[in-house]
Specification:
The chain is mainly α and about 350 residues long. The protein is built from 16 helices and two strands. A hairpin with a 2-residue loop joins strand 1 and strand 2.
Length: about 350
């Protein structure tokens, strides 16, 4: 909670600094404090966020899912670091760089604004307001400051423009603001192409900058949400997989409801869940220990759920679970007055479960 409050306060200060700059043309927070805000927002906040919500995480249907596709995340880390370096270079330098370098730096700042806008659609609104929006405001201030410095140098005729490329870069830097930003946005494309070629050397793909967003679950640009449609969290993972085998083998009996979703129920799954109910009532500590460790199995299944869509593999798991099903069945018949009622009410709607429960009492 304390960290959230700090992020909100820093984001508010960045907003005040931006409004002050718009009105007065100066950073109203003072040079040292504005540098602290820049370090916290541009360097600290993104990497803290990635450390919590992305680095080391996988695409996961049932837990926190990675912000960027794990296969393509290196591309995004590269761009975040590269853009951050351009920002800090602009903030901490004592004089302007040659025109070609200035074009590159300003192009990266433009790319940073676009990236944070895209992230705003990919993430929740809270993260955009407290993280991405302050970064965008700081980048806009830096771009405006760079523009003023270039114009001042041009008026004083202190900016070297020897050579065609340098002269071309100088014309871009001194163009009207809207024209300049439009040209810099176009120049981002060749920078992206060159960076993508470099990233190929570490195993990234040419389209990784796009797939880092799309090959994910449950975020704004995610296109893999369909992979989670048949994944039911917090249940009998192996039995759920087994029930998806060939009908002649696994013998589904009906559909059921679990966590708001529809699942295929066969007798093995119903018996297993009824057995867990008994275990939870009779030995809660043992049940908690077994469930906690069994959930680890479930995590592995969810991360590779597409593998378990194979019906022959489901048939195999169903057969493998048969001895356990028999043990569960024997326990139910030894401990329950109406074991078939206990089995039959599993994964029914709440009202139907309650009616069967009343018959058992």
């Amino acid at each position: 909670m304390g960290l959230i409050i700090i992020f909100i306060i820093i984001a508010a200060l960045a907003g005040i600094d931006f409004l002050g700059y718009i009105v007065t043309g100066k950073r109203i927070m003072g040079p040292y404090f504005t540098k602290f805000i820049g370090v916290f927002i541009v360097a600290g906040a993104p990497w803290f966020f990635l450390g919590v919500f992305d680095i080391g995480l996988d695409n996961d249907c049932c837990n926190d899912s990675a912000v960027f596709s794990p296969e393509h995340s290196a591309t995004m880390y590269f761009w975040i670091a590269f853009i951050s370096i351009a920002f800090f270079y602009s903030e901490w330098r004592t004089k302007l760089a040659p025109p070609l370098v200035e074009v590159l730096v300003n192009s990266l700042l433009i790319a940073g604004i676009v990236l944070n806008i895209v992230l705003g659609f990919h993430l929740e609104m809270f993260f955009f307001v407290t993280g991405n929006l302050p970064i965008i405001l700081l980048f806009l201030i830096t771009l405006s400051t760079n523009q003023r410095q270039v114009q001042k140098m041009a008026q004083e005729d202190h900016y070297a423009t020897k050579g065609k490329l340098t002269n071309w870069a100088f014309k871009i830097l001194t163009a009207p603001l809207l024209v300049k930003f439009s040209l810099l946005l176009i120049l981002c494309l060749p920078v992206i192409v060159i960076a993508s070629a470099i990233l190929l050397l570490i195993g990234q793909k040419p389209d990784s900058i796009v797939r880092a967003f799309t090959d994910t679950y449950s975020h704004g640009f995610s296109e893999w949400d369909y992979m989670c449609e048949n994944v039911v969290c917090g249940g009998h993972y192996l039995c759920s997989v087994a029930a998806n085998g060939h009908q002649k083998i696994v013998k589904p009996v009906r559909l059921g409801e679990r966590n708001g979703g529809t699942i295929v129920c066969n007798r093995q799954l119903l018996i297993s869940n009824a057995f867990e109910e008994v275990l939870e009532k009779k030995t809660p500590k043992l049940h908690s220990f077994i469930r906690r460790n069994y959930n680890k199995v479930g995590d592995k299944i969810h991360k590779h759920y597409h593998v378990f869509e194979n019906k022959y593999l489901s048939d195999f798991i169903y057969i493998l679970m048969k001895p356990l099903e028999l043990i569960f069945w024997m326990v139910l018949y030894a401990t329950q007055r109406n074991p078939e009622n206990s089995i039959g009410r599993q994964y029914l709607p709440k009202e139907a479960r309650n009616q069967i429960q009343l018959k058992n009492t």
